[in-house]
Automatic annotation (TrEMBL), chain B:
GO terms for biological process: endoplasmic reticulum to Golgi vesicle-mediated transport. SUPFAM superfamilies: SNARE-like (SSF64356). InterPro entries: Longin-like_dom_sf, TRAPPC. It is found in: Endoplasmic reticulum; Golgi apparatus, cis-Golgi network; Golgi apparatus. This is Trafficking protein particle complex subunit. Pfam families: Sybindin. Part of the multisubunit transport protein particle (TRAPP) complex. Core component of the TRAPP complexes which has a function of guanine nucleotide exchange factor activity for Rab1 GTPase. Plays a role in vesicular transport from endoplasmic reticulum to Golgi and autophagy. May play a role in dendrite postsynaptic membrane trafficking. The lineage of its organism: Eukaryota, Metazoa, Chordata, Craniata, Vertebrata. Belongs to the TRAPP small subunits family. TRAPPC4 subfamily. GO terms for cellular component: endoplasmic reticulum; Golgi apparatus; TRAPP complex. The keyword Transport applies.
Length: 140, 181
């Protein structure tokens, strides 16, 4: 059971943060384009789901599971894990409220609307993800 | 376990088969007096709730019937504009039925093609080798399962229709089937 990577987007599609832990395959396109593709895909899935019912949570393929959490202010937390992981909405909410809000939004020196430069945020996020019960150091 | 609908999409992303099985739709009928507590707006030829969610009437629900008579898009059964009718205090008290708007055939075609592209992008953005496209998509009210075959589906035929309905009935009676995760 493992976590592959994590994306953080704001309401305008700007990728605020990206971290990876176990990633075997790169997308084959530059990182900037990958962020835009990911954001576009999430935007389309959201409008697709809202036509039928509402509240997109996650999707899975044969190899990975993508978990999604969106706040009312438009901040999107996206985490890719392997298939053995169940619903982790509370984990994503914690990343938003205890890490992003506390360390970035409440920090007057961190400009919002662009990639987060704060080293404290990066290291706290990294240690939080590593401490999760479904994260194993062995690439699963 | 309830199955809501089945869509079959071909290799190019076009919708070639669609079936809606019976599903209880969340509908609410209430009597209102003037002025209306909800904010209604016109969208895509339908009258939708924009604001003022209460009881079981949610934002995004459409006006389905007024005083028991089904509305026709933005017009009532006798041809008047729904928004105009509901803006006139002389027409109150009025009984309005709200619910999730039913998808038109055109919308279903668009959704099928959209899903086809998302399926492919899901495979491209995979952090793991050899990932398939999206097999299961989860929301808080339903799950969408997708199975990709190796071949094309033949032209539509009656037997397929009947056998599919039978298979769905068997699946419903059998209860939950084990997910292959």
């Amino acid at each position: 059971m493992t976590v592959h990577n994590l994306y953080l987007f704001d309401r305008n599609g700007v990728c605020l943060h990206y971290s990876e832990w176990h990633r075997k395959k790169q997308a084959g396109i530059p990182k900037e384009e990958e962020y835009k593709l990911m954001y576009g895909m999430l935007f389309s899935i959201r409008s697709f789901v809202s036509k039928m019912k509402d509240g997109f949570l996650a999707f899975q393929t044969s190899r990975y599971k993508l978990h999604y959490y969106e706040t009312p202010t438009g901040i999107k937390v996206v985490m890719n894990t392997d298939l053995g992981v169940g619903p982790i909405r509370d984990v994503l909410h914690h990343i938003y409220s205890a890490l992003y809000v506390e360390l970035v939004v409440k920090n007057p020196l961190c400009p919002l609307g662009q990639t987060v430069q704060s080293e404290l945020f990066r290291s706290r996020l990294d240690s939080y993800v590593r401490s999760l019960p479904f994260f194993s150091a062995r690439a699963g | 376990m309830a199955i809501f609908s089945v869509y079959v999409v071909n290799k190019a992303g076009g919708l070639i088969y669609q079936l809606d099985s019976y599903a209880p739709r969340a509908e609410a009928e209430k009597t209102f007096s003037y002025p209306l507590d909800l904010l209604l707006k016109l969208h895509d030829e339908r009258v939708l709730v924009a604001f003022g969610q209460r009881y079981s009437i949610r934002v995004g629900h459409a006006v389905l019937a007024i005083n028991g008579m089904d509305v026709n898009g933005r017009y009532t059964a006798d041809g008047k504009e729904v928004l105009e009718y509901l803006g006139n205090p002389a027409n109150y008290p009025v009984s309005i039925r709200f619910g999730r708007p039913r998808l038109t055939s055109n919308e279903k075609l668009m959704l099928a093609s959209m899903f086809h592209s998302l399926f492919a992008i899901g495979s491209q953005l995979s952090p793991e080798q050899g990932s398939s496209g999206i097999e299961m998509l989860e929301t808080d009210t339903f799950k969408l399962h997708c199975y990709q075959t190796l071949t094309e589906m033949p032209i539509r035929c009656e037997l397929f229709d009947q056998n599919l309905k039978l298979a769905l009935e068997v699946a419903e009676k059998a209860g939950t089937f084990g997910p292959g995760s």
